[in-house]
Design goal:
- The protein contains 21 helices and 14 strands.
- It is of the alpha/beta class.
- It has a five-stranded parallel sheet with strand order 2-1-3-4-5, with helices on both faces. A five-stranded parallel sheet has the order 7-8-11-6-12. A two-stranded antiparallel sheet has the order 9-10.
- It is globular, with a radius of gyration of 26 Å.
- It starts with 6 loop residues before the first strand and ends in a 5-residue tail after the last helix.
């Protein structure tokens, strides 16, 4: 989550304890409001969207149960963490029974408080009665991959907002790692279906023998082993959004089955005589050129027309380098809060080096880099020595400008006596290493389908 978007009120009559609690939370990046009386807290919740109240108390102080109830009348979704010492255990237990998220003994351990806050916010995102608050909290649990002000991203953000309120199918395109599923989730979160489920299906992993059952479900006795009714993705996603990832790798049979549902608006679970109305919004995604695949006969042209009512093409990170500082700030805030680390400061030299990197893994690769730095680096100031090296050879330089697959391939040594299977396994392994283990992008670079890559990974000999 982005802690700067979370407002926490800290209440403690003990000035030293108040300062200590506030400092712990401010170091993480939360927006902290300090209060020394219950009246101050009431004023805050009447004028602010307060996510959490951290209340310190001691024996003989104000009735915390009555205090919690009063705040709940003003802000029903606010969570509470209690911090106490001396004769307060019974009160704390009762407070937790009455809805407090956690009780921590004083002096409060920073790690324990950080974890308790995270748990309270997770709980709030699940049980909040206000739908707008619940959705905003869910969005905060992931960093913003659309951060930045480049013209391309501003246009994409506007398009997302425009299409989200409709039910038209959307096709999200772009290289692997550019955030296609996050774009689909953003459409769902802003749609009229936001309270319904978001179900993601990897089309590359659907075998022909399982497609009908996976998408449309089956009834008991439909085939050997069907011992009970089982709903498919279209039924599970009813009232919500069905995200069809890697749609370009869907088999011809699957393309035909999907087209029939999109045209008729109904489907039949396998083995059932009864038609079911399809009540889902379709968002599909691919890193392939579907128009070219349709011209080559690998993808149904009529299905492409059905899916591509609106296309959102996400640019690779190398073409939106001006957004990198905003993305780094988003990832930094998210992972520091998630892993209970102090905020990092990334120097201009570090950011400048990032802007010159080709980013074959796109935003996913940048996100992994920032998380690794947050978790493994003790220093708070991050310089260029921790940035990926700037490409120096012609192959990498060409990659930065949109290299061909052959030029972008990693270098490795082939020795006399190696079998063809060993060379193939070595090539696959080095390609996966260069792309941070992302198989879909590796399959694209190698010119293979994802299914073929998976088969060769499991069957190829391992070079010694």
């Amino acid at each position: 989550m982005n802690p700067a978007q979370i407002t926490i009120v800290v209440l403690d009559r003990n000035a030293s304890d108040l300062a200590s609690l506030a400092q712990i939370l401010e170091d993480i990046g939360y927006r902290v409001l300090s209060a020394s009386t219950t009246a101050h807290v009431e004023r805050f919740v009447q004028t602010e969207a307060v996510n959490l109240v951290v209340k310190g108390f001691e024996a003989g102080q104000v009735d915390v149960i009555a205090f919690m109830r009063q705040i709940k009348t003003l802000s029903r979704d606010t969570e509470f963490i209690l911090c106490g010492r001396g004769g307060t255990i019974e009160t704390a237990v009762e407070a937790i029974h009455q809805g407090a998220s956690e009780y921590l003994p004083k002096p409060v351990n920073a790690a324990a408080l950080t974890q308790a806050v995270q748990q309270a916010l997770d709980r709030q995102s699940l049980v909040a009665e206000d739908p707008k608050l619940r959705q905003s909290l869910k969005r905060r649990t992931s960093p913003d991959v659309f951060a930045g002000s480049s013209p391309r991203m501003r246009q994409i953000t506007e398009t997302l907002a425009e299409v989200a309120t409709t039910d038209v199918p959307v096709l999200v395109t772009g290289e692997s790692g550019t955030g296609k599923e996050l774009a689909a989730r953003a459409i769902h979160a802003r749609s009229r279906r936001q309270s319904g489920p978001f179900i993601a299906i990897n089309c590359a992993g659907l075998a022909d023998s399982l497609i009908e059952s996976e998408l449309f479900g089956h009834v008991r006795g439909a085939f050997t082993g069907a011992v009970q009714d089982r709903p498919g993705a279209f039924q599970i996603a009813a009232g919500g959004t069905l995200f069809l990832d890697e749609i370009g790798d869907l088999s011809p049979k699957g393309q035909g089955d999907l087209l029939r549902v999109l045209e008729d608006g109904v489907f039949r679970p396998l083995g059932s005589p009864h038609a079911v109305t399809a009540n889902v919004r379709i968002v599909a995604a691919t890193n392939r050129d579907l128009a070219r695949r349709a011209n080559e006969g690998h993808f149904r042209e009529d299905l492409l027309y059905r899916l591509n009512i609106v296309e959102i093409d996400l640019p690779p990170l190398r073409k939106r380098a001006e957004d990198i500082p905003a993305l780094v700030a988003s990832f930094n805030a998210h992972f520091c809060a998630r892993h209970s680390r102090r905020q990092k400061h990334f120097t201009p030299e570090f950011l400048a080096q990032l802007a010159r990197h080709p980013w074959p893994g796109n935003i996913r690769q940048l996100r992994n880099l920032i998380e690794r730095i947050v978790v493994t680096t003790h220093a708070t100031e991050i310089g260029p020595e921790l940035a990926p090296p700037i490409p120096t050879n012609s192959a990498n330089a060409t990659t930065a400008a949109g290299a061909s697959r052959a030029e972008a391939a990693p270098m490795f040594a082939v020795h006399f006596g190696m079998t063809a299977a060993e060379v193939e396994a070595l090539l696959i392994r080095h390609t996966l290493e260069k792309l941070d283990g992302h198989r879909a992008e590796a399959a694209r670079v190698l010119g293979l389908s994802r299914r073929t890559l998976h088969y060769r990974l499991s069957s190829a000999a391992t070079p010694q």
